[in-house]
Amino acid sequence: MKKLILSVFFLVTFYLSADILNYDKVLSNLKGVKYYNKEDYGKADSLFNENSINYPNDSRLHYNQGNAKYKNGQLEDAEYSYNLALKNNEFEQRSEALQNLGNVKFQQKDYQNAIKNYRDSLVENPENMDARFNYELAARMLQRQQEQQQNQQQESDKDNEEEKDKQDQQQQQKQDEQKQDEKQEEKEQQQQEEEKSEEQKQQKKQQMKEEAKKKEDAEKILKALLQKEKEEMKKEKQKMNVDKEKTGKYW
């Protein structure tokens, strides 16, 4: 793509206006053209700039300055100078100025506006072959740019979809882990309740056993007391019988 773009600007012609009647203006402009042709675009720009300040209504000076700035890589400043030149509807090189304005937009990869400027250039001069060539090239570049943007958008959508799927998977995994934790917690809680219930059963069983033993012990004590009382009554009765035999009295 880079070689293709460079070839355009080798083929583009930049027209410089040297036919200016005022002597100082002509001399300064010719010097600027000389430096321009020597590819010393900085000095050319300086001379064209001084001339355009001194003669601000001369569109040709603004046009020449725009060319120097363009060659110097100052695209925004070049665009400004071309637009100053195009304010004059009678400017004879309007087609070339519009073409070069299109070149600025082409360099900025603003192919839609480049196409517009090339089209306007052809309206001014249908025989401008450079503008026609650049128009066709800009149209192809715009199509390629749109396809790239579409592909980038598709890639972005794909990446977003993959990221969304990843997030969904992570969310699902998190939910599954949470459910697993809840199940484990519920299982542990149930186990604790069962252990607690078993412990309560054992405690109750032990309590019943202890109560039964107490009851058994109490019955044994009661039985022993009754037996002792019975024996004491028997002894008392025997004693009474012995006493009766001794006294000979019976009650």
What descriptors fit this protein?
single chain, 251 residues, mainly alpha, Serine Threonine Protein Phosphatase 5, Tetratricopeptide repeat, 84% helix, 0% strand, rod-shaped, disordered N terminus
Query: Strand-residue fraction?
Result: under 5%
Whole-angstrom Rg: 58 Å
Number of helices, where a helix is a run of at least 4 consecutive DSSP H or I residues:
8
Structural category: mainly alpha
CATH class of the domain at 2-148: Mainly Alpha
Helix % is: over 70%
Biggest sheet descriptor: none
Order of helices and strands: HHHHHHHH
Unreliable parts:
1-20
End-to-end Cα distance, whole Å, is 150 Å
Q: Considering the protein shown, what is the CATH homologous superfamily of the domain at 2-148? A: Tetratricopeptide repeat domain
Overview of this structure, please?
- This protein is mostly helical.
- It has a domain of 147 residues: Serine Threonine Protein Phosphatase 5, Tetratricopeptide repeat (Alpha Horseshoe).
- Helix content is 84%, strand content 0%.
- It is built from eight helices and no strands.
- Helix 2 runs antiparallel to helix 3, helix 5 packs antiparallel against helix 6 and helix 6 packs antiparallel against helix 7.
- It is rod-shaped.
- The chain starts with a helix and ends with a helix.
